[in-house]
C-alpha cells in the first residue's frame, strides 16, 4: 500500500503501478524526504532511482507512470506552503502581499534535466525533454521560474528540435509550447515551429507543431499550408485547428474558398468529414445558421462548384422539419403562404444560388420531397412568367452587353434557369410555355452567350426529338443572325420631282381660285363664290393626299448582323447543339449552317469567333468521316499558325478525329513504316538537286516513294503532333502530350519511341513547374503499361533508348540531372507482368506472365556486352539485379547464366562486378529451384507411366506426333515468323550478335543447356582463369550439338519469343529517340 512505503525505492515501485495513488505517494515521499539528514542526500537518492527510468527509450507504461509521478512531485504545492508558527496572526492582505516562494526542488530538477538533454543515449535525451515538458505543464498558470532556467530551457529545447530522433523532437516541441511569445515577431520558438511545419520529415513532428503553435497573422499562413500535407493525420489536425481557433472574419475570401475547395475535394473521406464538421458547420454556427449569409462570405460567382458542394454537404442529412425552416427563410414575408416568390429587388446571387441548391436537394429526395417541392416552386407557367419578368426588368436597363465582364444579373438568370430543371414538366401547357420562353430568350439581343448552354439544356427536356430540335435551333440561329427590323422606305429623285411639280401646279391653281373668290365676294356674287370655295376644298384635299402618299413607309425586313457578339452567340448555340447530336452524317440543314455561319466564322478577325467556329467545325467533322478528311489540313494549319487559344482548340479537334476514326481513315497504310516513308520522301526531294549515281536501285526506291505519296497527309499529322511536344507554350505542349497519350492508350498508335518521348518529357526538369503535364503523364503511364502485355512489351522496347539517351546527355542538357536509377526502377515496375489487369490479360500474356523480364534481361545483357566501357554500365548491371525472373523456364535461366559469366569477364568496374555477382547468385538459386521441381515432376511422371504403360503407349501413338517431326506446321514455321516479326519490330540496322556475345540461333540453345551442366559443377574462379574454363566448357558442349537436333524441333512459341528477345537491339540511331518507327507503328 502507498501508506506503507518507507523508502524512496518503494515509492518508485508503487508509482509505476498506476496513477490513482500518486497523491498519497507524494505525501509519503515528502515524509521520507523530511526523514533524511540533508536535502542533498535525498536528492541524490531520488536521482539514483530516476536514472533507471531515464535510460528507457521505449514508451513503456510503467516508465510513463514514473515520469508523471516525478512531474507531480516536483511541482507539488507542499513546496510552496509555509506552516505558520503558533501564535502568529497573519491577515489575508499581508498574505497576498507576500511574494510567492520559489520551489527549490523544482529548480534542482530543471538544472539536472538541462544537464542531461545533450546526452549520447537517445533514451536519456528523450526522457529529459519529456520531463521538462511535464514539469512545465504541471506548473500553475501563474507560476514562475528563474530567468536563467527559462533561458536554459529555451536554448536546450531549441537544440533538441534538431535532434535526429523524431520522438525527441516531438517532446521538445511540447516543452517549448509555453515559451512562445505571439506578440514578438522575432520569437525564436515561433520561427522554429513554422520552419518545422514545412521541412520536418516526420509527420508526427509536424502534427505536434500544429497542435502547439500559437496562431498569429504570421503563423496562420504556414498552418493553412499544412492542409496540403501528404499525410492524412496532419491534414486532419490542420483543419481541426483552423476550425476551432480561426474565425471566418480573420480569413480573406480567397482563403475561405481555398480551404473549402481543398477540404471538400480531398481524396480522404475522413478529411472531408472534418472539413464539414469543424470548418463549414463552425462558420455556419458563427453566422447564426444563415446559409445565405455564409454564401455572402464566399465568392460564389467565381467558385460555383465549391459553393455547391458546401451547400449540399450542409443540406445532406437534414430532417424534413429543418428543410421546411430553410424554405421559410427564403420567403421575404414570414406570413406568406404558398410557393416562394422572391421580389426582384431582393433576388441577389446568393439567394438565387441557395434557392437552386435547395430545389435540387429536395428533388433528389424523390417521393418524400414532393410536398416540400410544392412549397418551394410554383407551377411551370407561373415560374416561366417569373423568369421572363426578371430578364426583361434587369436586361432592359443595360444599354450594351459586355461579355468580358461578369454581371450579377447573368448569374441570377442562370440559377433560375437551372432551377427550372427541377419543376414537373408533365403538363403539356407548361412545356409549351417553357419552350416559348427558351425561344424568346435565345432570340433576345440582351441575353448573353453565357446563358446559351443552360437554355439549350432546358430545351432538350422540352424537345426530345433530335431532328426537330436541330431544325428549331437552326431557325433560332437565323433569327439571331438576321433579326426582323422595321425599315422606312423613301421616294426616288424622279418621284420626288414629280411630286414637287404636282404640288406647284396645285399651288398656282389655288392662288388663282383664291383671287377669283375674293373678286366674287367684292362683287357680291355669292353663288359663284360658293362654287369656288368648293373647288378650293377639293384641290386642298388632293394636295394633302399627295403629301401623305409621298411620306416614308415602314416595312419589316431581316437585317444580317456580323458583329462579334452576335456571331459568338450564334456559334455558341451551334456548338451546344452539335455536342448533343448523336446522328451519323450531315443533313442538308447542318450543311447549310456550315456554309453560312461556321466557315465564314473561321475567317473572322475576332479570335473568340474563330475559336468557336473551329470548335463547331470540329464537332461537325466528328459526325462525318469524309467531312473530317476534307478539313483535316485546315485544322492542322490553324493549330500551327493561329493564336494560342485557337491553336489549342484545333489541336483538340485533331486528336478527337484521330481517336474516333483512326489514322487509317486518313489514307495511312498501317503496314508501312512511318520513319521509312518520311525518309523516302526526304530522299525524293533531295534527288531533285543531286545526281543519281545508281539508276537500277534508285528507280525502285522512287517507285516506293510514289506509292507512299498518297499517305503524306496522315504522316504529316503525326509529325506535327509530335513536334508540338517541344512547343514553348505550356497549353500546346500539354494538349499534345495528353492527345498522344490518348492515342497510345486507345491503341490507335503503338510506338516505343513516342512513349520514350513522353517519359523523358515527364522527367525533364524544365517541366517541373508544369503540374498539369506531369499529372497527365504520371496517370497515363501505369494505366497504359498495366492494361495489356502488348503495352508492357512496348515499354520494354523503350527501356534501352530512354536510358541511353540519359547516359549520353551532355552536361549542359537538362536531361543530365535526371537520376537514371530512378528511371530504370520505374520502367522495371511498368514491365512487371504481375501488375497486369486481370480483366485485360489474354491467353498469350498469361502464358508468359511468369517470365516477363527475360527478354528485357537479354537486351540489357547484350547492351552491356556490346560496349562494357560505355557510360551507364553500372546502372544496367543494377537493372539486372532488380528484374523479376521468378517463374522462368530452365532454358532461359541457363541462357542468362552464360551471359552473366561473359559479362563478368568483360566488365572491369568493381561496383558493377559486385552487382553481377549478385545477379549470378540469383540465377544459381533459381536454377537449383527449377532443377528440383523438374526432378520431382519427372519422378511423378515415371511412376504414372509405370502403372499405365500399355494404355499410355497406345494413347501416345494416336495423339502425339513422333519426336523427329515438328508438332505442326504452325509450330514448325513459328520461329522464322517471329524472327521476321522481330526484324519488323526493330530498325533495319539491328542485327543478330555473333555467337560469342549472344545465343541468337537455335543450335546454341541446346549447347547452352549442356554448357550450364559443366558450369554449375565448377566452383567460381578468378576472372583471368574463367576465360580458359569457359573455352573448355564450350568445346565440351559442342560435342552434344548433334544430340540436340530432335529436341530443337520442339521449340514452342515461348522459346521462340526467347530467341527473338536475344536480338541485339542496340544501334547508333536509338539514342536519337525517333518517334515513329517500323517496329512500333501499329494501327488498330
Automatic annotation (TrEMBL):
<dbReference type="InterPro" id="IPR011989">
    <property type="entry name" value="ARM-like"/>
</dbReference>
<feature type="region of interest" description="Disordered">
    <location>
        <begin position="929"/>
        <end position="1057"/>
    </location>
</feature>
<keyword id="KW-0131">Cell cycle</keyword>
<keyword id="KW-0226">DNA condensation</keyword>
<keyword id="KW-0132">Cell division</keyword>
<dbReference type="GO" id="GO:0051301">
    <property type="term" value="P:cell division"/>
</dbReference>
<keyword id="KW-0175">Coiled coil</keyword>
<dbReference type="Pfam" id="PF02151">
    <property type="entry name" value="UVR"/>
</dbReference>
<feature type="compositionally biased region" description="Low complexity">
    <location>
        <begin position="1031"/>
        <end position="1042"/>
    </location>
</feature>
<protein>
    <submittedName>
        <fullName>Condensin complex subunit 3-like</fullName>
    </submittedName>
</protein>
<dbReference type="InterPro" id="IPR027165">
    <property type="entry name" value="CND3"/>
</dbReference>
<feature type="compositionally biased region" description="Basic and acidic residues">
    <location>
        <begin position="969"/>
        <end position="986"/>
    </location>
</feature>
<feature type="region of interest" description="Disordered">
    <location>
        <begin position="682"/>
        <end position="712"/>
    </location>
</feature>
<feature type="domain" description="Nuclear condensin complex subunit 3 C-terminal">
    <location>
        <begin position="569"/>
        <end position="885"/>
    </location>
</feature>
<keyword id="KW-0498">Mitosis</keyword>
<dbReference type="Pfam" id="PF12719">
    <property type="entry name" value="Cnd3"/>
</dbReference>
<dbReference type="GO" id="GO:0000796">
    <property type="term" value="C:condensin complex"/>
</dbReference>
<dbReference type="InterPro" id="IPR001943">
    <property type="entry name" value="UVR_dom"/>
</dbReference>
<feature type="compositionally biased region" description="Basic and acidic residues">
    <location>
        <begin position="1003"/>
        <end position="1015"/>
    </location>
</feature>
<dbReference type="InterPro" id="IPR025977">
    <property type="entry name" value="Cnd3_C"/>
</dbReference>
<feature type="compositionally biased region" description="Low complexity">
    <location>
        <begin position="951"/>
        <end position="962"/>
    </location>
</feature>
<dbReference type="InterPro" id="IPR016024">
    <property type="entry name" value="ARM-type_fold"/>
</dbReference>
<dbReference type="GO" id="GO:0007076">
    <property type="term" value="P:mitotic chromosome condensation"/>
</dbReference>
<dbReference type="GO" id="GO:0000793">
    <property type="term" value="C:condensed chromosome"/>
</dbReference>
<feature type="coiled-coil region">
    <location>
        <begin position="484"/>
        <end position="549"/>
    </location>
</feature>
<keyword id="KW-0158">Chromosome</keyword>
<feature type="domain" description="UVR">
    <location>
        <begin position="510"/>
        <end position="541"/>
    </location>
</feature>
<comment type="similarity">
    <text>Belongs to the CND3 (condensin subunit 3) family.</text>
</comment>
